[in-house]
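re: that chain from earlier
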Amino acid sequence: MKRLPIDLAQQKQLDEERMAELVRFTARTLETASPVPFGAMIVNSASGERLVRAVNAVRRENDPSSHAELRTVRKATKKLRTISLRGYSLYSTCEPCPMCMANALWAGLDRVVFGATIADANRHCRQIRISAREVVRRSDMTCIVDGPILRKDCYILFRHPNMLKTFATWNPKA
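^ sequence. v structure.
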């Protein structure tokens, strides 16, 4: 049976519910020795069923590519045993950087939904200030980019006292 398209109000409500879940998941790191404000989740675009989620692990894994979005794509493709994530959507507590957005395009994700913006993140740590929408615009691949969704809730992750202490130990902005 083919699923009927949902209206914009229903989509907004679903996006907010999924983002709130992701914020709660990511916030759990704030009371650990390795807090991060960056979390991501991949869901089935039609059913909304969660497939995988992850947080940033750059420092924990000593890997500059271990962004939450890339980690979820890696987990999802392994779980599904395919390189294509058509039929799936990515939620991220922060707008994907150009590396992560390019990966979302290569994976064929239907949609990317983000909370805080790259500008929000750049207040606390270094960023490549190219929007996710600009990466899509300059590509020959397609992906819907929606956001910010629950921006204030996502930005709170960046302003948590433990996160602010951790930012001071990261690459200083100078």
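The helical segments are 8-27, 58-61, 68-80, 98-107, 118-122, 132-137, 151-159, 161-167.
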